[in-house]
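Structure ticket #2291
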Amino acid sequence: MSSAANPAPVGQQQAPSRRHRHGKPTVTRRSAVQLLIGVLVVGAIPIVSTARILQANALRNERAHADSALRDELQNGLRELGRLGDDASARVSDLANSPTVQRAVIKRDVATLRRLAAQRPGIAFYLRTKLVAGTQPRDSTQQSLWLTVDGARVARIVASAPLDAQLARRLTRDAPHGRADRLVLVQHGRLVGGGSRLAVEGQTVRFHGVDYRGLPALVPGSSGVRLMALRPEGEIRATVKPYQERVRYAAIGSFALLILVAFLFAGPVLRVLGDFRRVASQASTDGLTGLANRRLLDEELVLEWRRADRVGASLAFVLLDLDDFKRVNDTHGHLAGDAVLRVVGRVLAEGVRQVDLAGRYGGEEFALILPETELPGAHKLAERVRSTLEATAIELPDGQTLRVTASFGVALKDAQATPEDLVSAADDALYAAKAAGKNRVMPQPAGVGPPVGEPERRKPKKAAKRPASTPKRKASPGKPAKGEI
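Resolution: structure written out below.
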């Protein structure tokens, strides 16, 4: 069984709950700052994204332009290497057609072959597979031709063009190229003639601590040597940097304009939001007491009823009506009646738990929705609120003070079929409290007697219709004394 928690004493400051806040909610300075920051963040996202996309596209386009230039440089270098190969092929063909070479091969005249090789650098003679004259560079482009006798291969002539750093520099010089572009010869991940190792990742080549954009191509007639055209990445970025800076300045200007617009329109937007929140609050809050209104009470009762059904929890509902409230209005005026209602609202708001909902049901009638509360707990809370209200001195606008009481009717969900039946049961209990002498909580728990005093009799309730206000107790002749209801 869950009962109501001990409430704070009347008049003691208590943090208002989500359900029964006092006053009209407005847009606070913190909310205004959060809104402004949100607008700036939401506006900055497309600005920053657009700027980054434009900068990335500019770099991508510049790299594509660099690839095109490197491809042209590479083709020029390959054409030059092709001419070297053609020259070597012509030399081999001339030697193969030479009668001197033919006689030396047939007679296996090694001395003649060595003399011929010494006169022609880059020429090597093989008798069958054995090198007998000349040398063959390790890194070179080669052209060879076999000599045959009666269909049998007897000798091979090889002409080589060396591939080295000097050739790479000449190729770079002869080819149209950018200011920092270069052509290099690479074999097995090292520069030919230099020995420096290259790290290749996609189209990025790193050596000597510098990143290059590189395009490779295999050198015809070589043993795995590649010609590579390079352009420093720093050169590419430097080319596109002025455009990227213009994009950055444009993004900064756009963001500054966004900030200016946000400050210009922040006031009107916040006022509109404040008005919206006030209208939304007025739709669910009683303007006089700051409690929930009838509409919110009905909605929350249905929601709590469904939740109680879903989780198997208890639910209590309390109706209370101020005793002889019409006499307050008739004797002291409606401003005094409003002051009384405001105090009652404060007593209810401070006397319930945060999970409970206190609201004005209509006129001088109020209601409490108490989730997860059994009948003894609901009766205990109602009795506490009743005694607090009875002991509270209410100061009226004219300086007078008076005290009021209220009658309470408590009902539990367990015995009811619908939320409407629950309200009706609480209403019946409220009428029983009025009939039993007012200023009490009904039904009385077992073992608790009625308050001392003669109960006041009242006419029985009509079945079809409830009167707008409770009948007044017969007043003694003359005006009531000060502070008396």
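Closing remark: The first strand starts at residue 123 and ends at 127.
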